[in-house]
């Protein structure tokens, strides 16, 4: 019922704005006509369609990551991070970064990239010097970044778009004369249901501290909040709406921070972690630092051994014989985990939408009862 209401409101809004209605109809009819007509433009339309899917996939993953006041799907860990790691390992294994057939040669809507299981000989001779100790190639970090940064930027733009609902909800509440309940709750005493000392309790204290110390949000404050991974930005968005901060003053620093600064920090971290030469240097540094501490030294050796085994397994490539006989694989477990996460995320959206719709109905009923009294 809530979805029908939202669809009806969207249709009424478009119908009430004639220019928007004409542009929407013209765009849909024109796109459909160009796709069905034959001619020299067919290749361009196919390319444009693939680019559209590419952009919508990574932007959609970014929105799914940040929407829902911190309860979104962690798509960086599930999708973008593994994609960057795989590309880095492949580039250092083959000694080249020109692995993609096009910018959109990534995992899109369940379809994997073409370069993932190709042999290094298919790409040509290596273009970078080989490191004898590791058997891999010394590929500069920035060269790898140039090949994967568009996916990161699109994902970051999606996370910025996902921060808009809390801002608009809070601003609408402010303009209507109400105050947002989530912001009000932070100003009250500690929730008795959340034990002190727990992670939830600490996060609530951090949010309350933020609420007290950052009453005046300017461009640089929002930019700093958006540029680092933190669980408090949903509160920053709500506070900007509650304080009636202008939309562009909120969205521009959010977009710069999330799509440019934060995503590049995360991408560089993943590349550095998966770059074999940097890992070897890190192993040497950590081994020297903790060699005299028995417990940490043993734990560190175990972690480094697992990393080396993972790299060797990736270098050896997939085994067709094992793939034919061994069906219950780690990949199957991972895919099952991702699907469970997606279902939980969809269920949370359905529950939140239904609860909001029910609250609206109950509020209207209470208003009618008060008028009768």
From TrEMBL:
<keyword id="KW-1133">Transmembrane helix</keyword>
<keyword id="KW-0812">Transmembrane</keyword>
<feature type="transmembrane region" description="Helical">
    <location>
        <begin position="12"/>
        <end position="34"/>
    </location>
</feature>
<feature type="transmembrane region" description="Helical">
    <location>
        <begin position="54"/>
        <end position="80"/>
    </location>
</feature>
<keyword id="KW-0472">Membrane</keyword>
<protein>
    <recommendedName>
        <fullName>Vacuole membrane protein 1</fullName>
    </recommendedName>
</protein>
<feature type="transmembrane region" description="Helical">
    <location>
        <begin position="336"/>
        <end position="359"/>
    </location>
</feature>
